[in-house]
Design a protein that fits this description.
Layout (H helix, E strand, L loop, with lengths): L1 H13 L10 H7 L3 H30 L20 H23 L1 H7 L10 H13 L4 H29 L11 H16 L7
């Protein structure tokens, strides 16, 4: 249990997808104009990561990894299908994003309209693919650890986009120099938030 807590906390703060690796920046910058749309997209990303990371864990460990097919036959112990990793991971992500898109359209047509093209673009959000690739690279011991990592990564991305959206709503009423308005000041604030999150690297987990 303690190990799962460690993975969860690290994935949110120490290994934050936005502030540590700068993944998923296109959606992060484009959709973070209002808190409402940011919350919707953030929850969608959390949902997709929670579903895709454990599925990709099973695919990696029982299909793609070197010797993973030994459960089918001892003769397949030398088979390595790792070259299919990107294709299969992206296929799983695209399927889950399609499911999320249908759910959001049914439950909240207004949010669906506000998110626009950025909802289906979750399929090519590098933070989603990054979550699955980092999971494979770190070789988590079981599916519980992989799922915890996916959930924590999603929460970290959610905190990042909602945080910057709240700041952007406030600075609309601030005296920002004209050349820095819009994305200029957003990049600066993102850099400062990234520096702040680097402080969590000192946490002993």
């Amino acid at each position: 249990m303690e190990n799962l807590v460690n993975i969860f906390v690290k994935s949110i703060f120490v290994e934050n997808m936005v502030f540590a690796y700068f993944l998923g920046m296109c959606s992060y910058l484009a959709v973070s104009k209002t808190v409402k749309t940011s919350v919707g997209l953030g929850l969608a990303v959390v949902f997709v990561l929670v579903i895709t990371v454990p599925i990709d864990y099973l695919i990696e460990n029982y299909l793609l990894a070197d010797g993973a097919l030994v459960w089918l036959s001892p003769e397949l112990a030398d088979v390595d299908l790792g070259f299919l990793r990107f294709i299969l991971f992206i296929a799983v992500i695209a399927s889950m994003v399609q499911l999320v898109e249908m759910i959001v359209e049914k439950v909240s047509p207004t949010l669906y309209a506000n998110l626009g093209i950025f909802l289906p673009l979750i399929a090519v959000n590098c933070a989603i693919l990054g979550g699955s690739l980092f999971m494979a690279e770190r070789e988590y011991a079981n599916i519980a650890e992989a799922t915890t990592y996916g959930f924590g990564s999603g929460i970290g991305w959610f905190i990042a986009i909602v945080g910057i959206a709240a700041i952007r709503e406030k600075i609309k009423y601030s005296n920002v120099p004209a050349p820095l308005k819009g994305l200029g000041i957003t990049f600066i604030i993102t850099g400062l938030m990234g520096l702040a999150f680097m402080g969590f690297m000192g946490i002993e987990l």
